[in-house]
Specification:
single chain, about 500 residues, mainly beta, Tachylectin-2, Chain A, six-stranded antiparallel sheet, about 5% helix, binds 2,5-dideoxy-2,5-imino-D-mannitol
Amino acid sequence: MDTNPLHPGLGEAHALSRASTADAHRPRYHFTAPANWLNDPNGLIQWQGRTHLFYQYNPNGAFHGTIHWGHAVSDDLVHWEDLPVALAPTPGGPDADGCWSGSAVNNQGTPTLVYSGVFPQSVCLATSSDELRTWQKHPNNPVIAGPPADLQRTSGGHFRDPFVWRADGQWRMVMGSKIEGVGGLVLLYTSPDLLHWECQGPILQGDVAQTEPFWTGAMWECPNLLDFGRRQALIISAQSTAEDLMYAFYVSGRFDGQRFLPDGQDILVHGGSQGTFYAPQVLAADDGRYLMWGWLKEGRSQASFMEAGWAGAMSLPLEVSMEMDGKLCVEPAAELAALRQDHRRWNSLDLADGELLLDSAAGDSLEIIARFDLAGAGEFGLLLRAAPDSQEYTRLAILPAERRVVLQRDRASLADDVNTAPCPAPIYTTDNGTVTLHIFLDRSILEVFVNGGRSSLAARIYPTRADSLGLGLFSQGGPARLQSLDVWRLATIW
Ligand code: DQQ
């Protein structure tokens, strides 16, 4: 096998496979690893104007195991260049079983990764002296050997995903943890130097028995703290069991430096009961925006993705903002407009009961902005990846009476090992009776932003037929009115 210098052990063929069109499910403008397994985004940092994305990566196959940190860099948030794998487990070291998730900081000019060693779960450091290209592990690792003594037993040793920032002249860090039988925990630590840490206790604790308005699971992973000035937000990924990663949610409220006092919460990006968008990490960008990437899980069997040779994708670069009422909005970053090609527009279409395929806008790599009147009976919306004979299609339906958007996947794939459960997302407010769906379709990925990102959803679909490319409109149970429809084909980033 010829060797790819960036990814030892991988052949050139693997490295080039992202650019190939042979695999009909491989995204064209979402970031994926050159091959094999990818999960959480890690270590997001901007350094000398470039954005670095690290990610949980298994170079040994398309399955979760021997977790390394993959690394890529971008000048524009959209196109990525692979860099050498940043971290690999050290036999006999605190990360011998994997370099799990963590974050990156600029420590007085020294780029520093703060990551989870396993097993036992601990906090480790690595620094770079060649502009983030290669990384040296700190001789004092682990800098935190495990959860505080009183949590050692009750947490079952679950203690991971350091998220570090600087405030008031010290380093602060939140960690994910749990108390068995009680719920998830976010722990706060402080440090003068990233080496010596003091636990300040939990800032927020979940209730595993509470299932409304949604269940927050038994273990909290990948906490992020966002500061919007008057208010703050914690983004948390909820795990029910080690095998069952559910979804990311947020809690908004006030963080007083010791405790997080919540006054609102919601799912961050919807995706049905087995969510797709998970373990997001937020970057406080140089230009003041909060940018976010999440892991888009696979929705097909392990046998299928192992056969494909790759698993997992990053979400688009997303911007997170907070409304006056504490609600978080998630929108695609403006930089994505650079990918737009072949614009088509339709204005003022009255839809009778039935379907209308738009032949000039077919494709599997599309950006779509559709504005509908919310008034109307029954349900209406878009058909995506539709075969000409309707054997396969995905429906994105607006249900006005229920104030919901539902991604209906029961006909999305003829394969029998894929998740076809419906994905609902709420319509929170209408803009003058209009509902706007901003949709990114990238082969097996769908990301949808409703009314300026006041709610959003992400899902995976796996059409089997090469001609499942149709884009259309439908109305069922009454007429509907489309105010406008904009469609672009999006260029590939590879
Ligand atoms: N993924 C990492 C953990 C984290 C989990 C392991 C979330 O650090 O808790 O790959 O997906």
